[in-house]
Amino acid sequence: MASADTGAPYDVAIAGGGFTGRALALALASLAPKGFGIALVDAEKPHAGPPPNGAPPKQDARALALSAATKNLLSVLGVWPALEGGAQPINSIEITDSPLHAELRPHFLGFEDVLNADEPGAYLVEYGPLYRALEDAVAQSGAIDIFAPDTVADYAADAFSVTAKLASGGALTARLLVAADGRNSKLRERAGIKCVSWSYPQVGIVTTVAHTRPHHGRAVQHFLPAGPFAMLPLTGNRSSIVWTEEKERGAEIMALDEAGFIAELARRFGAKLGELKLAGPRQSFPLALQIARAFIADRLALIGDAAHVVHPLAGQGLNIGMRDVAALAEVIVEDTRLGLDVGSPVGLERYQRWRRFDSAFSAAVMDGLNRLFSNDAAPLRVLRDLGLGLVDRAPAVKRFLVREAAGITGSVPRLLMGERL
Ligand SMILES: Cc1cc2nc3c(=O)[nH]c(=O)nc-3n(C[C@H](O)[C@H](O)[C@H](O)COP(=O)(O)OP(=O)(O)OC[C@H]3O[C@@H](n4cnc5c(N)ncnc54)[C@H](O)[C@@H]3O)c2cc1C
User: What is the pTM of this model?
Assistant: First the structure.
């Protein structure tokens, strides 16, 4: 761990060592010109290194659906080889909203989730391995000064630099401070940036199940009146569950003993994949939509959940955050090569133009889908099933949707296309 107040000012200081903060640190370390100074401050105790020195890895029941674009970014950063063995390709997606008691659950919309013969549109990766792969790569990079466990408690910007005050008492000076400090971002609050936000009356229950029959890489999204129930394929005969429930009912389900919890789960999961058993902890997450009204302030840029939080129904939250990482890295690297100040308003404006509308649009789409489907009104059910049925018969629309979810449409930062800058 580095100590504050000792060295020359950094070019970029990053507050938050979650997925997005670490990915940005790595992108800058491997792509910015030699000598570019990077500091990473994280509240978490470092786990990197073999036991007994390394602390136990961070526990989180989530698995993440990573788009092909996020995979491209992780490949350029050299992280993907560490993940590949445990990454389950999603080969197809089925969407249904049939009632739970239906004997058969016909799908209303089915996709082959492939971009071309050997490129799936998305992969499922478990939280722990993804966190560890990024943490190890940052620790081994040699070009990133890590301050952990510590937090940025406050900051102050002037015309030339920004000073981040650490909770431990030290301070760091940089040209640009990046807030990658998650949905309750302290830095966003200190910058006076307000959010458009609302909480959903739902929670997301997450767990892992083992089943006796293979899933063949098929992801199933079952829209139920309380919210979507997703069965996402993991390696082996295992699936990750993201189960949206109305808040009170969610708390009751979380309080059930194991047999009761499995019984509720099995009712929704169906019998197609055989017998079920729990293969991981269960965890419940509050769900919200939140978009920062600005992604930048003086010498400050917001990325990841600090900038936007979306409903997890399409597994896009981190993928949108990785778009921020790739766009900000591209702006910073290009400006540095031109000898420009990386914290200047011109570069920051370019980043904000690139990312804010795209993020707000994605959040609105997730919100609309959640509202459209978390609803059992008969006329709405008929209309949406008709809509899904039409899309199901339109291969060109399906191809577009697959490319959209893979993150390779629109103004795509080069790192997401797998190009080095
Ligand atoms: C149920 C559920 C399922 C999901 N599934 C998917 C999915 O399938 N695919 C997908 O793309 N996304 C998914 N997401 C979204 C995804 O988990 C998040 O978007 C992602 O984890 C956010 O990463 P982050 O790095 O921006 O923030 P975080 O992971 O919140 O990291 C923030 C970091 O900052 C640190 N920190 C906080 N304050 C400070 C401070 N002041 N100074 C320094 N450090 C600080 C914290 O300790 C933490 O390490 C899901 C979310 C939920 C809830």
Answer: 0.93
